[in-house]
Amino acid sequence: MYNGVKAMIAAERELQGAAGGAPKAAAAGGAPVKAGPHLKKPEDITGPVEFPADCKSLLCKYLKPDLYNKYKGQKDKAGVVFEQMILSGA
Q: What are the structural domain ranges in the chain?
């Protein structure tokens, strides 16, 4: 159990480092876009989203550049584009 906890802590630190580092986000597919009220439509999101440091949303915790690149431009059953879901969650 101790080793499992240590592995989880190491993974969390790695994720935190990836969230705060612009070079990793930029390397994964386009320049990162800062989240905020200036994003009005899905077309405004042109790359992985970079959230503010004080953001407590689960979206900012789990939406990493590789996940963004996997789903960008895709639609759900209702025809909602992935980027629109990001706008509604941010």
A: 2-89
